[in-house]
Automatic annotation (TrEMBL), chains A, B:
Native organism: Paracoccus rhizosphaerae
Keyword hit for Signal: no
EC number(s) on file: 2.7.9.1
KW Flavoprotein (keyword) present: no
Record key words, sorted: Kinase, Magnesium, Metal-binding, Transferase
Required cofactor(s): Mg(2+)
Taxonomy, superkingdom: Bacteria
PROSITE patterns in the cross-refs: PEP_ENZYMES_PHOS_SITE
Group of enzyme by EC: transferase
Protein name: Pyruvate, phosphate dikinase
Length: 846, 846
């Protein structure tokens, strides 16, 4: 014996020093079960330090563990890492069996069972500990045990070890070494564990699950892992010992609710005990646990308990239920749900329990699942919608003209594009499942076929889009409905109470606004107005305006759109009932409103009564090499100021109208694509003039807030100047990312996969905010703006507003709110709450 | 009298205290003439303080100026601002005339002359001092004087003032007030003067230029204002007094070289005196002066001397000549030439002395002038060139395919685009005069006509492009040849001696490289390699590469281009003879190498032996929404690495070849469009491998330097990381400006005019580096790169490299060198020298 022997194995008793960092989660969990006085067999914890020494060749002193064989004579050895999902070497059962114990067991549980236990251990020992060829230890039938023992002796030139202490020492050595191997390291690194993570081991006396009376083994859990609803599930297998020994023929359901024989009926007192254990474990372990148990002649042994694995929706329901029952505080319930998981709750999902018919994969651009018939054009989608048929719009990529087609579809699939391509952004806004960048597809829009590998699909064929996984499935998959239930609502309420930055929604339409309110958005942070001009009633006036030669003619064309715009805004103000609404002035280049094909041009020439050559020329003249960096946003606002004049008027008239009917409205007007302070000054002057005119004409007073969308790197750098003229700044991180990287989100899809795959970019910067580059510009902008005007409101609108990591960054950056697609509001809300809770925890621990 | 009287008027004597800041440039200049003992009439300087007080109502004490009337009795009053070009109120002559002086003058110079002087003053006084209606003072003929005096009395209810002191006081008051008026303020602000700039006045006794003997007035200067060559020019008008009085009939040339009567012949001693005065003035005033003089009965009076106005080329010749003669030091000669002026010397110029037939205006995109026949396509330009006809390529805008047509043209004119559009950049590189953004033109390429206002021009019509002024002229204008003379070369040599940052050239072809050397470039700072792939011999292999399905097939296609690329680089290395050559790896998106029209696609399909649909599909798939932000530069280098492999191999093989023949070559390889450090690491690994392979195969050793073009905001922010893997960083400020502003240079032309006009941007940021935004990123990049690696070479390549203000900024930013179009190298060299001299002066004065 030496000085370390005492620490080599610690018996798990209520008062023993068992520490998760030293002994692992399983040892700690078992100690809790022991403290709850559950019938846990005698167990010993071996610390990570000891395991490390064993791996380095030190032998465990047999005396330290001799006691564990005092019961049945059989023991199990299980891994006990710091976190359950870091894995570990496989459990080894039945350690301790030898010729003499075998003989004793024959008397207790019969020849067959005793043979089976001995055989199982010899096979396991030979292959996992002695590392002999597994193919040589597949013995079966009446002489299997004798053959296995002989085979072992032949191979090892020694008889099978008869000393239980020696068996155990070898098992421990083998498990310790396996944890140190390169494969195990890689596997646990993939789970987020450090490569040299510690491993503890648990050695436990085994209860026999074979023999006379009620004997067997089983698991029990108390919730449904898919829904999270309270429901007892599990199995009990009579005469089933360890993973492999025993007939297991008498498999029982647990409750009498099931259609078949159940433990509840067969052994009601055992069932009652198990339920009692479950309730106690949930309270003491503060978690829904699955309990593993053995019944020996009617006596229960609880041998292990693990956290129930669960779906996204179950995770919400469980967390809320634990908190409601007072088991955990609200903050802890919030921390236990992965924000991203909430997105799954808002939509239909493919049932994970049913096998899938995969035909292609792409980027999971908008979550949820839907089944519909393939259509290849926006027009076909609209016809299908009119016929009442669910359809999936399949395009190489979508363009603004496709929006109505997207509205008419149940899901969208594109061959090109990335997470922030047009299709992806619009689909998320509409809450439609969407897959983009499905590069394995070949779409032939003329032939109306879709080739995916060997399969050729035609227009009208049914497919399912799983936007949560990026999988395109053949036919109609089994779908689970959305889970906007009571637990979901409760969690959002708690999230709101937990504080953190506010969350608003990007909402362009009344439908969006209604969704935003349903998800408790604190207002609209970004209302894009351009889609409003694609309407069939408005497009002609818009085109007339583009072709007008004088400001006066432009004004006249826009006057026809004014009442419709006013109605757009009135409706939004009414729905939001006094919550702030930030309206971004017209942003896209004008050529988006013009046709580019021959027929469209001819039609346009006719309707404008202009020669085709003139119309063609004008359309060509407006075409741009790089529309993203062209004549749009405030540049249009300054060179064609009539558009902003009309929009400002519509906003103010709607403000007066809505304020007369309901809560007073203070609209927020946002100027896009600013790169210089003077742009803000010029637009401000004109908007102030429009406000004065409307106040005068309508004999009504109102206030408004004018702000700037910071989307160019220059605007971020000049945020100090710009803040001087702005009530708020909103960082449009989509465009800011595009310009900081020099990367068009519409074109990046083609190589983003390669780039992230090769680690050129750690993450897709359109998905997760790039803290090193874009983030620095954002922080610079925030600092300079606040220095110039401490009272300024600062926000982030764009796809990053819905990304949990990015929200944590915004929280730290002292941003007032984020704004994201309505369907991402719950995710953002929870992420914001978690950031706030983390900050408080960091403060408390300081 | 009061305490200020002494300072009210200071007689200009050799020892009097005349200060330019107090009394203005003219008073100071006159004092210098007085010190040179030139026959300057008695003169008094009135300080700016006094003028300010006069403007505020204070009257000048008459005694202070009474003496000035002691000579002829007539005086002039001239403005004397701090700088000559700040302007000032008009000169007032003949102050002091009244009935009694008139009577005396009748006896001296005759009735008509005396009447004329009196009349001139009454008219001038009435309109400029009494502010009466000028239309009432147009009297002419025998009774004009009496009528004018009566008219004055009628209007003013008082007789014409007879006290010379009172006249003078009124004149001073009026001039002082005029300087304070809003119009005068705006005018001088336009010249760069502060709005409250001081004004001195000069009161001078007038010499009579009328009367018996040789009398008259004239100007003389000693250099040709267009060429700067030594040549006496000017006029002498006999019997001509003040601007308006006298017959002036006897106008004489000055020298006997002229075809007509001359002062040199008529009065050789007077001419000799004037030449003597001129030589003395040049030496003492350290400048080429124009002297204004009056001859009274054979006696010369020097009444004023002003700096000769001069053309760009004259400014160079004058400065060099003054310095060579030891009148001024070299540094001062360098400071006296406006760097931009040098650009005019490199090209033909429209003779400023000949009237112009203007037909349209555009943006002056590349300086110089050329006459040629209009062609509307690159093909037509090449045919014209083959026929030996000079032609001007007229396009809506140019695209890479037009480059050969541009080569074949003498000038380029485009309807669209801005200073950094494709046409502008290429034309500057080729040294071709170019006008872009001539929005007043309507090009009909099919009808082959060009409409400019009312004029319709056809293919083959002759026009002249003045790329220095942005004017399109009808027909063949008179052109001055380039002036790459001895003075120009001397100035560049001095500029090189003056130090400052180095200047390299952007050179893509052997011709560019030869030009670069001719202009003393210190190497090639940017060799763009993409144009090399448009060659008829290479394009097919390039297209084959684009359509290849495997890396191996791509490699095979590129292998056909390898020997040509190697030859490209060998030739450049040979021309540059050991000077550094920075080669930028392939940058543009692949779709630039594919046809987009139907015929081109069909041809391509045939040559590749692929179905048309396949080719069309592939071309469409490669098309991008925003090519500027797409799959180009290092992104292509990483996803299609075979291109960079081939280029690196060509560079290294050329290095070995050229080093064997001449000076050892250390090529610099530059990676474009980097936004993340990892991109550099990945490319570096492959290039190192290619280098190792070439060293091994060719059994030769060589070194090379790998660097990064910093053109995305993110690369500037991450310059620290990136520097760790780079031998040099070159800031590509064109693209950096595009991305920082979110502004495509190809599309900005459409509104840049409005933007700069309305002061939204102070200057076109593609023309003058935006110090507040792009400049901050540049400084950040410089700081972080130097911090990481103090030895790193930092440069700016791009259009800003040739802009004087931007060079001053680069100098201050501690940039090692700038690189610009070969034809801008002299401008940049001079600007760099000036920055260095200014720094030294600032140090000295500390």
């Amino acid at each position: 014996m030496n000085m370390h022997d005492i620490s080599e194995a610690t018996e798990i008793t209520p008062s023993g020093r068992i520490d998760r960092a030293d002994h692992g989660w399983r040892a700690k969990c078992l100690q809790r079960l022991v403290r709850m006085q559950l019938p846990v067999p005698r167990s010993f914890a071996i610390s990570a330090d000891t395991v490390r020494m064993i791996a380095q060749g030190r032998r465990v002193h047999p005396d330290a563990l001799r006691d564990v064989f005092a019961g049945s004579g059989l023991v199990s050895v299980r891994p006990s890492a710091v976190m359950p999902d870091w894995g570990g070497p496989g459990t080894i059962l039945n350690v301790g069996i030898n010729d003499s114990l075998h003989e004793r067991l024959v008397g207790l549980i019969g020849q067959d069972n005793a043979d089976a236990i001995y055989l199982a251990f010899v096979q396991s020992y030979a292959t996992h500990i002695a590392r002999l060829d597994p193919d040589m230890f597949t013995q079966d039938g009446p002489n299997a045990l004798a053959e296995a023992l002989r085979c072992y002796r032949d191979e090892m030139d020694a008889p099978f070890p008869q000393d239980p202490a020696e068996q155990l020492a070898e098992v421990l050595r083998s498990m310790a070494r396996a944890w140190d191997g390169p494969t195990a390291r890689l596997l646990r690194q993939a789970k987020g564990a450090p490569p040299d993570a510690p491993l503890g081991l648990v050695v436990q006396e085994m209860a026999l699950a074979l023999g006379p009376g009620l004997c067997g083994s089983g698991t029990i859990q108390f919730i449904d892992p898919v829904t999270g609803a309270p429901r007892v599930t599990g199995r009990f297998r009579g005469q089933h010992h360890g993973a492999t020994v025993g007939s297991g023929a008498e498999t029982l359901f647990l409750t009498s609710d099931e259609r078949g024989p159940s433990l509840q009926d067969t052994a009601p007192e055992i069932f009652a005990d198990l339920v009692r254990f479950g309730i106690a474990a949930r309270e003491r372990l503060r978690e829904e646990m699955q309990i593993e148990f053995v019944v020996t002649e009617g006596r229960i042994s609880v041998i292990d308990a693990t956290r129930v694995t669960r779906s996204s929706r179950a995770s919400v329901r469980i967390a809320v239920s634990l908190a409601r029952d007072g088991v955990i505080p609200h903050d802890e319930a919030l921390m236990r749900v992965e924000p991203r998981a909430l997105a799954d709750l808002l939509h239909h999902q493919v049932d994970p329990r049913v096998p899938r018919k995969l035909i292609a994969r792409g980027i999971d651009a908008s979550p949820g699942a839907a089944t519909g018939r393939i259509v290849f054009s926006a027009a076909a989608a609209q016809s299908a919608h009119a016929r009442g048929e669910a359809c999936v719009l399949v395009r190489r990529e979508t363009v603004p003209e496709d929006i109505r087609g997207m509205h008419a579809s149940v899901a969208v699939l594109t061959e090109r594009g990335g997470t922030t391509s047009h299709a992806a952004v619009i689909a998320r806004g509409l809450g439609l499942p969407c897959i983009v960048g499905a590069t394995g597809l070949a779409i032939d829009a003329r032939a109306r076929t879709l080739r995916a590998g060997d399969q050729l699909l035609h227009e009208g064929d049914e497919i399912t889009i799983d936007g949560s996984s990026g999988e395109v499935l053949a036919g109609a998959a089994t779908l689970l409905p959305p889970a906007l239930d009571d637990a979901f609502t409760q969690l959002l309420d708690w999230a709101a109470e937990a504080g953190g930055l506010d969350v608003r929604a990007n909402a362009d339409t009344p439908e969006d606004a209604i969704t935003a309110r349903r998800f408790h958005a604190k207002g609209i942070g970004l209302c894009r107005t351009e889609h409003m001009f694609f309407d069939a009633e408005r497009l002609p006036a818009m085109r007339e305006m583009i072709f007008a030669d004088s400001p006066e003619d432009r004004r006249l064309s826009l006057e026809r759109i004014l009442p419709m715009q006013r109605k757009d805004f009135t409706r939004l103000f009414e729905i939001m009932a006094g919550l702030p609404v930030t309206i971004r002035l017209f942003d896209p280049p004008l050529h988006e409103f013009l046709p580019h094909d021959r027929d469209g041009l001819r039609e346009l020439a006719e309707s404008l009564d202009l020669p085709l050559s003139h119309v063609t020329r004008r359309v060509e003249a407006l075409t741009e090499f790089n529309p993203m960096l062209g004549m749009r946003g405030v540049r249009l606002g300054i060179t064609v100021p009539e558009i902003y004049d009309m929009q400002a008027r519509a906003i103010f008239e709607a403000t007066v109208e809505a304020s007369r009917k309901g809560d007073p409205v203070v609209p927020e007007i946002m100027i896009p694509l600013v790169s210089a302070m003077r742009e803000v000054e010029l637009v401000k002057t004109r908007i102030d003039a429009v406000a004065a005119a409307v106040r005068n004409e309508m004999r009504a007073d109102f206030t408004f807030r004018l702000g700037v969308m910071v989307e160019t790197p220059r605007a971020a750098l000049r945020a100090g100047d710009i803040a001087a003229h702005s009530a708020f700044l909103s960082f449009g991180t989509n465009d800011l990312t595009q310009m900081t990287y020099g990367l068009s989100r519409d074109d990046a899809g083609r190589f983003m996969g390669t780039y992230v795959g090769q680690g050129v970019y750690a993450e897709d910067p359109f998905h997760v905010l790039d803290q090193d580059g874009v983030g620095e510009l954002l922080l610079t902008g925030v600092r300079r703006a606040r220095q110039q005007k401490p009272s300024i409101t600062l926000s982030v609108c764009g796809e990053h507003g819905g990304n949990p990591e990015s929200i944590a960054f915004c929280h730290a950056a002292d941003i007032d709110y984020v704004s994201c697609s309505p369907f991402r509001v719950p995710v953002a809300r929870l992420a914001a709450a978690q950031s706030a809770i983390r900050s408080r925890m960091a403060c408390d621990s300081e």
